[in-house]
From TrEMBL:
Protein name per Swiss-Prot or TrEMBL: Benzyl alcohol O-benzoyltransferase
One family name in Pfam for this protein: Transferase
Family: Belongs to the plant acyltransferase family.
EC number of the protein: 2.3.1.196
Classification of source organism: Eukaryota, Viridiplantae, Streptophyta, Embryophyta, Tracheophyta
Keyword set, alphabetical order: Acyltransferase, Transferase
One function term, GO molecular function aspect: acyltransferase activity, transferring groups other than amino-acyl groups
Species this protein is from: Medicago truncatula
Gene3D superfamilies in UniProt: Chloramphenicol acetyltransferase-like domain (3.30.559.10)
Length: 458
Protein backbone atom coordinates (compact mmCIF):
# COMPACT_ATOMS: atom_id res chain seq x y z
CA UNK A 1 0.00 0.00 0.00
CA UNK A 2 1.15 3.53 -0.77
CA UNK A 3 1.45 4.86 2.77
CA UNK A 4 2.60 8.18 1.39
CA UNK A 5 -0.95 8.60 0.10
CA UNK A 6 -2.45 11.84 1.38
CA UNK A 7 -5.99 12.99 0.76
CA UNK A 8 -8.58 15.32 2.19
CA UNK A 9 -11.71 14.22 3.99
CA UNK A 10 -14.57 16.65 4.41
CA UNK A 11 -16.86 15.67 7.25
CA UNK A 12 -20.24 16.97 8.23
CA UNK A 13 -20.94 17.57 11.90
CA UNK A 14 -21.40 14.28 13.81
CA UNK A 15 -25.05 13.48 14.46
CA UNK A 16 -26.87 11.16 16.83
CA UNK A 17 -28.94 8.46 15.15
CA UNK A 18 -31.77 7.29 17.39
CA UNK A 19 -34.01 4.22 17.01
CA UNK A 20 -36.72 4.79 14.38
CA UNK A 21 -39.40 3.57 16.81
CA UNK A 22 -39.84 3.88 20.59
CA UNK A 23 -37.72 1.37 22.52
CA UNK A 24 -37.77 0.22 26.17
CA UNK A 25 -36.22 2.61 28.70
CA UNK A 26 -34.62 0.23 31.16
CA UNK A 27 -31.33 -0.65 32.80
CA UNK A 28 -29.50 -3.76 31.61
CA UNK A 29 -26.53 -5.20 33.50
CA UNK A 30 -23.50 -6.33 31.54
CA UNK A 31 -22.20 -9.80 32.31
CA UNK A 32 -19.14 -10.34 34.48
CA UNK A 33 -17.31 -11.46 31.32
CA UNK A 34 -18.23 -8.17 29.58
CA UNK A 35 -17.28 -6.27 32.69
CA UNK A 36 -13.50 -6.64 32.61
CA UNK A 37 -10.93 -3.89 32.80
CA UNK A 38 -9.21 -5.26 29.71
CA UNK A 39 -12.37 -4.83 27.62
CA UNK A 40 -12.78 -1.17 28.49
CA UNK A 41 -11.57 0.13 25.15
CA UNK A 42 -12.96 1.07 21.76
CA UNK A 43 -12.55 -1.44 18.91
CA UNK A 44 -11.96 0.19 15.49
CA UNK A 45 -13.01 -1.58 12.29
CA UNK A 46 -13.13 -0.62 8.62
CA UNK A 47 -14.59 -1.92 5.34
CA UNK A 48 -13.80 -0.77 1.76
CA UNK A 49 -16.50 -1.06 -0.91
CA UNK A 50 -16.07 -0.48 -4.64
CA UNK A 51 -18.53 1.23 -6.96
CA UNK A 52 -21.36 -0.98 -8.22
CA UNK A 53 -23.13 0.25 -11.39
CA UNK A 54 -26.29 -1.55 -10.22
CA UNK A 55 -26.42 0.94 -7.34
CA UNK A 56 -25.95 4.02 -9.54
CA UNK A 57 -27.75 7.02 -8.09
CA UNK A 58 -28.03 5.46 -4.64
CA UNK A 59 -26.23 7.10 -1.75
CA UNK A 60 -24.54 4.74 0.75
CA UNK A 61 -24.60 7.43 3.43
CA UNK A 62 -28.36 7.90 3.19
CA UNK A 63 -29.10 4.17 2.96
CA UNK A 64 -26.90 3.24 5.93
CA UNK A 65 -28.09 6.17 8.06
CA UNK A 66 -31.75 5.16 7.64
CA UNK A 67 -30.97 1.46 8.15
CA UNK A 68 -29.04 2.28 11.31
CA UNK A 69 -32.10 3.90 12.88
CA UNK A 70 -34.17 0.80 12.06
CA UNK A 71 -31.46 -1.61 13.30
CA UNK A 72 -31.30 0.20 16.64
CA UNK A 73 -34.92 -0.75 17.27
CA UNK A 74 -33.70 -4.35 17.60
CA UNK A 75 -30.35 -3.51 19.19
CA UNK A 76 -31.66 -0.67 21.34
CA UNK A 77 -29.06 -1.09 24.15
CA UNK A 78 -26.50 0.34 21.69
CA UNK A 79 -28.51 3.58 21.68
CA UNK A 80 -28.07 3.87 25.45
CA UNK A 81 -25.16 4.84 27.68
CA UNK A 82 -22.90 2.92 30.04
CA UNK A 83 -23.17 3.71 33.73
CA UNK A 84 -21.08 2.42 36.63
CA UNK A 85 -22.65 1.13 39.82
CA UNK A 86 -21.28 -0.15 43.15
CA UNK A 87 -18.10 -2.21 42.77
CA UNK A 88 -17.51 -0.59 39.35
CA UNK A 89 -20.31 -2.76 37.97
CA UNK A 90 -21.18 -1.73 34.40
CA UNK A 91 -24.73 -1.45 33.16
CA UNK A 92 -26.48 -0.01 30.12
CA UNK A 93 -28.97 2.78 30.70
CA UNK A 94 -31.22 2.24 27.67
CA UNK A 95 -31.99 5.91 27.09
CA UNK A 96 -32.45 5.80 23.32
CA UNK A 97 -30.07 8.77 22.97
CA UNK A 98 -28.53 7.18 19.89
CA UNK A 99 -25.18 6.38 18.30
CA UNK A 100 -22.77 8.75 16.58
CA UNK A 101 -22.86 8.95 12.78
CA UNK A 102 -20.55 10.93 10.51
CA UNK A 103 -21.16 11.67 6.84
CA UNK A 104 -17.97 12.35 4.89
CA UNK A 105 -16.45 12.74 1.41
CA UNK A 106 -12.84 12.07 0.40
CA UNK A 107 -11.03 13.33 -2.71
CA UNK A 108 -9.46 9.94 -3.35
CA UNK A 109 -10.45 6.84 -5.31
CA UNK A 110 -10.32 3.27 -4.07
CA UNK A 111 -7.59 2.26 -6.52
CA UNK A 112 -5.28 4.90 -5.04
CA UNK A 113 -5.12 2.81 -1.86
CA UNK A 114 -3.43 0.11 -3.93
CA UNK A 115 -4.08 -3.61 -4.17
CA UNK A 116 -2.77 -4.45 -0.70
CA UNK A 117 -5.56 -3.30 1.60
CA UNK A 118 -4.47 -3.99 5.17
CA UNK A 119 -3.57 -2.02 8.29
CA UNK A 120 -2.02 0.44 8.83
CA UNK A 121 -4.15 2.61 6.52
CA UNK A 122 -3.21 6.12 5.43
CA UNK A 123 -5.17 8.94 7.04
CA UNK A 124 -7.05 6.48 9.25
CA UNK A 125 -7.85 9.20 11.77
CA UNK A 126 -9.66 11.07 9.00
CA UNK A 127 -11.63 7.99 7.93
CA UNK A 128 -12.61 7.19 11.51
CA UNK A 129 -12.76 10.51 13.27
CA UNK A 130 -12.45 10.52 17.05
CA UNK A 131 -15.23 12.90 18.00
CA UNK A 132 -13.91 14.80 21.06
CA UNK A 133 -15.17 13.22 24.28
CA UNK A 134 -16.69 10.21 22.50
CA UNK A 135 -14.02 7.66 23.38
CA UNK A 136 -14.73 7.67 27.11
CA UNK A 137 -16.22 4.46 28.48
CA UNK A 138 -19.04 5.99 30.51
CA UNK A 139 -21.90 8.31 29.55
CA UNK A 140 -20.92 8.48 25.87
CA UNK A 141 -22.27 6.85 22.67
CA UNK A 142 -21.48 3.12 22.51
CA UNK A 143 -20.98 3.11 18.76
CA UNK A 144 -19.52 5.53 16.22
CA UNK A 145 -19.93 5.04 12.46
CA UNK A 146 -18.37 7.08 9.65
CA UNK A 147 -19.36 6.52 6.02
CA UNK A 148 -16.98 8.20 3.58
CA UNK A 149 -17.86 8.52 -0.10
CA UNK A 150 -14.94 8.19 -2.53
CA UNK A 151 -14.60 10.03 -5.83
CA UNK A 152 -14.77 6.72 -7.74
CA UNK A 153 -18.27 5.99 -6.44
CA UNK A 154 -17.09 3.52 -3.84
CA UNK A 155 -17.17 4.19 -0.12
CA UNK A 156 -15.54 3.35 3.19
CA UNK A 157 -17.54 2.19 6.20
CA UNK A 158 -15.61 2.66 9.44
CA UNK A 159 -16.84 1.99 12.96
CA UNK A 160 -15.73 2.09 16.54
CA UNK A 161 -17.55 0.00 19.13
CA UNK A 162 -17.29 -0.13 22.92
CA UNK A 163 -15.74 -3.55 23.56
CA UNK A 164 -17.63 -4.10 26.83
CA UNK A 165 -20.83 -4.38 24.75
CA UNK A 166 -19.69 -7.02 22.26
CA UNK A 167 -16.79 -9.16 21.15
CA UNK A 168 -15.88 -9.78 17.50
CA UNK A 169 -18.74 -12.22 16.93
CA UNK A 170 -21.25 -9.86 18.52
CA UNK A 171 -19.99 -6.91 16.49
CA UNK A 172 -20.30 -8.94 13.28
CA UNK A 173 -23.85 -9.94 14.19
CA UNK A 174 -24.82 -6.29 14.60
CA UNK A 175 -23.11 -5.24 11.36
CA UNK A 176 -24.76 -8.07 9.43
CA UNK A 177 -28.13 -6.92 10.77
CA UNK A 178 -27.34 -3.38 9.64
CA UNK A 179 -26.37 -4.74 6.22
CA UNK A 180 -29.56 -6.77 5.90
CA UNK A 181 -31.77 -3.81 6.72
CA UNK A 182 -29.72 -1.63 4.34
CA UNK A 183 -30.61 -4.15 1.63
CA UNK A 184 -34.33 -3.88 2.37
CA UNK A 185 -35.08 -6.52 5.00
CA UNK A 186 -37.60 -5.50 7.65
CA UNK A 187 -35.76 -7.23 10.48
CA UNK A 188 -32.46 -9.06 11.06
CA UNK A 189 -32.29 -12.74 10.11
CA UNK A 190 -30.80 -13.44 13.55
CA UNK A 191 -32.71 -11.91 16.43
CA UNK A 192 -30.43 -10.34 19.07
CA UNK A 193 -30.40 -12.00 22.48
CA UNK A 194 -29.22 -10.17 25.64
CA UNK A 195 -29.14 -12.99 28.28
CA UNK A 196 -25.98 -11.57 29.88
CA UNK A 197 -26.88 -13.32 33.14
CA UNK A 198 -25.59 -16.56 31.57
CA UNK A 199 -22.03 -15.31 32.04
CA UNK A 200 -22.44 -13.72 35.44
CA UNK A 201 -20.57 -14.75 38.56
CA UNK A 202 -22.14 -17.49 40.61
CA UNK A 203 -23.56 -17.03 44.10
CA UNK A 204 -21.36 -17.46 45.97
CA UNK A 205 -18.49 -16.91 43.51
CA UNK A 206 -15.67 -19.46 43.59
CA UNK A 207 -12.54 -19.55 41.44
CA UNK A 208 -12.05 -23.16 40.37
CA UNK A 209 -9.48 -22.79 37.57
CA UNK A 210 -6.02 -21.29 37.23
CA UNK A 211 -6.07 -17.85 35.62
CA UNK A 212 -2.50 -16.68 35.26
CA UNK A 213 -3.69 -14.16 32.66
CA UNK A 214 -4.79 -12.03 35.62
CA UNK A 215 -1.60 -12.35 37.69
CA UNK A 216 -0.63 -9.19 39.60
CA UNK A 217 1.55 -6.96 37.42
CA UNK A 218 5.24 -7.17 38.42
CA UNK A 219 6.86 -3.88 39.48
CA UNK A 220 8.06 -1.78 36.55
CA UNK A 221 7.11 -4.48 34.05
CA UNK A 222 4.01 -2.93 32.48
CA UNK A 223 5.63 -2.91 29.04
CA UNK A 224 8.88 -4.38 27.85
CA UNK A 225 9.84 -1.40 25.70
CA UNK A 226 9.18 2.34 25.47
CA UNK A 227 6.58 3.33 22.88
CA UNK A 228 8.87 5.68 20.98
CA UNK A 229 10.71 4.96 17.73
CA UNK A 230 7.95 2.46 16.85
CA UNK A 231 7.43 1.22 13.30
CA UNK A 232 4.76 -0.79 11.50
CA UNK A 233 5.51 -3.84 9.38
CA UNK A 234 3.06 -6.32 7.95
CA UNK A 235 3.94 -9.97 7.36
CA UNK A 236 2.09 -11.99 4.72
CA UNK A 237 1.60 -15.67 5.54
CA UNK A 238 0.51 -17.76 2.56
CA UNK A 239 0.91 -21.45 1.67
CA UNK A 240 4.69 -21.09 1.16
CA UNK A 241 5.21 -19.40 4.50
CA UNK A 242 3.00 -21.90 6.36
CA UNK A 243 4.97 -24.77 4.80
CA UNK A 244 8.23 -23.11 5.86
CA UNK A 245 7.07 -22.79 9.47
CA UNK A 246 5.69 -26.34 9.53
CA UNK A 247 9.05 -27.60 8.26
CA UNK A 248 10.38 -26.83 11.74
CA UNK A 249 8.18 -29.57 13.20
CA UNK A 250 8.81 -33.33 13.24
CA UNK A 251 6.91 -35.03 10.41
CA UNK A 252 4.79 -37.12 12.78
CA UNK A 253 3.49 -33.95 14.48
CA UNK A 254 2.40 -32.02 11.37
CA UNK A 255 -1.30 -32.90 11.74
CA UNK A 256 -1.39 -32.28 15.47
CA UNK A 257 -1.59 -28.50 15.26
CA UNK A 258 -3.79 -26.03 13.40
CA UNK A 259 -2.27 -23.40 11.11
CA UNK A 260 -3.27 -20.72 13.60
CA UNK A 261 -1.44 -22.49 16.44
CA UNK A 262 1.66 -23.02 14.32
CA UNK A 263 1.83 -19.41 13.09
CA UNK A 264 1.04 -17.92 16.50
CA UNK A 265 3.62 -20.02 18.34
CA UNK A 266 6.26 -19.37 15.68
CA UNK A 267 5.90 -15.59 15.88
CA UNK A 268 5.79 -15.70 19.69
CA UNK A 269 9.20 -17.36 19.57
CA UNK A 270 10.59 -15.06 16.84
CA UNK A 271 9.34 -11.94 18.59
CA UNK A 272 10.92 -13.09 21.86
CA UNK A 273 14.25 -13.62 20.07
CA UNK A 274 13.97 -10.13 18.53
CA UNK A 275 13.28 -8.52 21.92
CA UNK A 276 16.58 -9.85 23.33
CA UNK A 277 15.22 -10.42 26.81
CA UNK A 278 17.05 -11.88 29.80
CA UNK A 279 16.77 -15.66 29.64
CA UNK A 280 14.97 -15.86 33.00
CA UNK A 281 12.42 -13.15 32.16
CA UNK A 282 8.85 -14.43 32.09
CA UNK A 283 7.04 -14.29 28.75
CA UNK A 284 3.40 -15.06 28.15
CA UNK A 285 1.17 -15.56 25.14
CA UNK A 286 -2.61 -15.27 24.99
CA UNK A 287 -4.74 -16.74 22.20
CA UNK A 288 -8.34 -15.54 22.37
CA UNK A 289 -10.93 -18.32 22.57
CA UNK A 290 -14.61 -17.80 21.68
CA UNK A 291 -16.90 -19.66 24.09
CA UNK A 292 -19.60 -19.82 21.41
CA UNK A 293 -17.75 -22.88 20.23
CA UNK A 294 -20.14 -25.72 21.17
CA UNK A 295 -17.33 -27.70 22.75
CA UNK A 296 -16.79 -24.81 25.18
CA UNK A 297 -20.25 -23.58 26.13
CA UNK A 298 -23.32 -25.20 24.60
CA UNK A 299 -25.89 -23.04 26.39
CA UNK A 300 -25.10 -19.67 24.81
CA UNK A 301 -28.09 -19.01 22.56
CA UNK A 302 -27.91 -18.09 18.90
CA UNK A 303 -28.11 -14.32 18.70
CA UNK A 304 -26.08 -13.69 21.87
CA UNK A 305 -24.02 -10.60 21.10
CA UNK A 306 -22.19 -10.03 24.38
CA UNK A 307 -18.60 -10.88 25.10
CA UNK A 308 -18.01 -14.63 25.24
CA UNK A 309 -14.24 -14.67 24.95
CA UNK A 310 -11.56 -16.05 27.21
CA UNK A 311 -7.88 -15.11 27.46
CA UNK A 312 -6.04 -18.36 28.30
CA UNK A 313 -2.34 -17.73 28.75
CA UNK A 314 0.76 -19.81 28.08
CA UNK A 315 3.64 -18.88 30.39
CA UNK A 316 7.34 -19.71 30.26
CA UNK A 317 10.71 -17.93 30.32
CA UNK A 318 12.41 -16.28 27.36
CA UNK A 319 15.30 -18.73 27.65
CA UNK A 320 13.12 -21.85 27.55
CA UNK A 321 11.05 -20.50 24.67
CA UNK A 322 14.11 -19.71 22.54
CA UNK A 323 16.29 -22.71 23.44
CA UNK A 324 13.58 -25.32 22.87
CA UNK A 325 12.23 -26.35 19.44
CA UNK A 326 8.99 -24.90 18.12
CA UNK A 327 6.84 -27.76 19.41
CA UNK A 328 7.65 -26.64 22.98
CA UNK A 329 5.86 -23.32 22.35
CA UNK A 330 3.10 -25.10 20.43
CA UNK A 331 2.35 -27.46 23.28
CA UNK A 332 2.12 -24.55 25.72
CA UNK A 333 -0.32 -22.76 23.42
CA UNK A 334 -2.43 -25.84 22.74
CA UNK A 335 -2.63 -26.71 26.44
CA UNK A 336 -3.70 -23.18 27.37
CA UNK A 337 -6.48 -23.16 24.76
CA UNK A 338 -7.67 -26.62 25.85
CA UNK A 339 -8.26 -25.32 29.39
CA UNK A 340 -11.20 -23.19 28.23
CA UNK A 341 -14.58 -24.78 28.87
CA UNK A 342 -17.86 -23.83 30.54
CA UNK A 343 -16.36 -24.12 34.04
CA UNK A 344 -13.43 -21.94 33.00
CA UNK A 345 -15.79 -19.18 31.82
CA UNK A 346 -17.72 -19.26 35.11
CA UNK A 347 -14.44 -19.26 37.04
CA UNK A 348 -13.32 -16.11 35.19
CA UNK A 349 -16.64 -14.39 35.97
CA UNK A 350 -16.27 -15.34 39.64
CA UNK A 351 -12.68 -14.08 39.72
CA UNK A 352 -13.82 -10.71 38.34
CA UNK A 353 -16.20 -10.27 41.28
CA UNK A 354 -13.84 -11.62 43.95
CA UNK A 355 -10.75 -9.69 42.85
CA UNK A 356 -12.37 -6.44 41.73
CA UNK A 357 -12.14 -6.92 37.94
CA UNK A 358 -8.36 -7.11 37.51
CA UNK A 359 -6.86 -6.29 34.09
CA UNK A 360 -4.84 -8.72 32.03
CA UNK A 361 -1.18 -8.95 32.98
CA UNK A 362 0.79 -7.10 30.29
CA UNK A 363 4.34 -7.88 31.47
CA UNK A 364 6.01 -10.00 28.79
CA UNK A 365 2.70 -10.35 26.96
CA UNK A 366 2.10 -11.30 23.33
CA UNK A 367 -1.66 -11.41 22.62
CA UNK A 368 -2.95 -12.94 19.39
CA UNK A 369 -6.47 -12.62 18.01
CA UNK A 370 -7.45 -14.68 14.97
CA UNK A 371 -9.99 -12.80 12.85
CA UNK A 372 -9.40 -14.77 9.65
CA UNK A 373 -12.89 -16.26 9.97
CA UNK A 374 -14.56 -13.24 11.57
CA UNK A 375 -16.40 -12.41 8.35
CA UNK A 376 -16.24 -8.60 8.50
CA UNK A 377 -15.44 -8.57 4.79
CA UNK A 378 -18.71 -10.39 4.10
CA UNK A 379 -20.91 -7.60 5.45
CA UNK A 380 -23.00 -6.24 2.56
CA UNK A 381 -24.90 -2.96 2.36
CA UNK A 382 -26.01 -3.44 -1.24
CA UNK A 383 -22.68 -2.91 -2.99
CA UNK A 384 -21.41 -6.46 -2.65
CA UNK A 385 -18.79 -7.74 -0.25
CA UNK A 386 -15.99 -5.54 1.01
CA UNK A 387 -12.59 -5.58 -0.66
CA UNK A 388 -11.24 -5.47 2.88
CA UNK A 389 -13.10 -5.89 6.14
CA UNK A 390 -11.35 -6.07 9.48
CA UNK A 391 -9.41 -4.09 12.03
CA UNK A 392 -8.87 -0.44 11.18
CA UNK A 393 -5.55 -0.49 12.99
CA UNK A 394 -2.90 -3.15 13.53
CA UNK A 395 -0.53 -3.59 16.45
CA UNK A 396 -1.06 -0.06 17.74
CA UNK A 397 -4.46 -0.75 19.36
CA UNK A 398 -5.52 -2.50 22.59
CA UNK A 399 -2.07 -3.07 24.13
CA UNK A 400 0.26 -1.21 21.69
CA UNK A 401 3.11 -3.36 20.47
CA UNK A 402 1.91 -6.40 22.41
CA UNK A 403 -1.31 -7.38 20.59
CA UNK A 404 -1.54 -8.60 16.99
CA UNK A 405 -4.34 -9.75 14.71
CA UNK A 406 -4.33 -12.48 12.08
CA UNK A 407 -6.27 -10.87 9.24
CA UNK A 408 -7.53 -12.68 6.09
CA UNK A 409 -5.79 -11.48 2.94
CA UNK A 410 -5.24 -12.27 -0.72
CA UNK A 411 -1.95 -11.01 -2.16
CA UNK A 412 -1.28 -9.57 -5.61
CA UNK A 413 -0.55 -13.09 -6.93
CA UNK A 414 -4.01 -14.23 -5.86
CA UNK A 415 -2.68 -16.39 -3.01
CA UNK A 416 -5.07 -16.77 -0.08
CA UNK A 417 -3.48 -16.29 3.29
CA UNK A 418 -3.35 -13.83 6.15
CA UNK A 419 -1.44 -10.77 7.22
CA UNK A 420 -0.09 -9.92 10.66
CA UNK A 421 0.59 -6.21 11.27
CA UNK A 422 3.31 -5.71 13.88
CA UNK A 423 4.10 -2.48 15.73
CA UNK A 424 7.52 -2.62 17.39
CA UNK A 425 10.63 -0.53 18.08
CA UNK A 426 12.68 -0.15 14.88
CA UNK A 427 15.63 -2.29 15.99
CA UNK A 428 13.36 -5.04 17.32
CA UNK A 429 11.49 -5.03 14.01
CA UNK A 430 14.74 -5.38 12.07
CA UNK A 431 15.63 -8.48 14.08
CA UNK A 432 12.11 -9.93 13.66
CA UNK A 433 12.28 -9.45 9.89
CA UNK A 434 15.74 -11.05 9.80
CA UNK A 435 14.52 -14.05 11.80
CA UNK A 436 11.54 -14.62 9.52
CA UNK A 437 13.53 -14.05 6.33
CA UNK A 438 16.17 -16.59 7.36
CA UNK A 439 13.44 -19.23 7.62
CA UNK A 440 12.19 -18.46 4.12
CA UNK A 441 15.71 -18.57 2.73
CA UNK A 442 16.21 -21.98 4.31
CA UNK A 443 13.20 -23.16 2.33
CA UNK A 444 14.89 -22.01 -0.87
CA UNK A 445 12.24 -19.41 -1.57
CA UNK A 446 12.85 -16.46 -3.80
CA UNK A 447 15.97 -14.54 -2.93
CA UNK A 448 13.99 -11.31 -3.05
CA UNK A 449 14.48 -9.85 0.45
CA UNK A 450 10.85 -8.73 0.47
CA UNK A 451 9.57 -12.28 0.07
CA UNK A 452 6.97 -12.97 2.71
CA UNK A 453 6.53 -9.34 3.59
CA UNK A 454 4.32 -6.49 2.62
CA UNK A 455 6.38 -3.36 2.98
CA UNK A 456 4.36 -1.27 5.35
CA UNK A 457 6.98 0.49 7.41
CA UNK A 458 6.06 4.03 8.37
Amino acid sequence: MAHALVFTVKRREPELITPSKPTPHETKLLSDIDDQDSLRWQVPGIQFYKYDPNMAGKDPVDIIRKALAKTLVFYYPFAGRLREGPGRKLMVDCTGEGVLFIEADADVSLKEFGEDLHPPFPCIDELLYDVPGSSDMLNTPLLLIQVTRLKCGGFIFAFRMNHTMSDGSGMLQFLNALGEISRGMSKPSISPVWSRELLNARDPPIVTCTHREYDPEPDNKGTMFPLDDMVHRTFFIGPTEVAAIRSLLPTHQLQKYSNFEVIAAYFWRCRTIALQLDSNEEVRMICLVDARNKSVYKQLPKGYYGNAIAFPVAVTTAGKLIENPLEYALNLVKKAKANVNKEYMHSVADLMVIKGRPPLTTAGLYLVSDITRAGLGDVEFGWGKALYGGMAKGGDVAIPGQAVFHIPFKNAKGEEGLVIPFFLPAQVMERLVKEFHSLLMCMHTKSDPKSGFINSSL
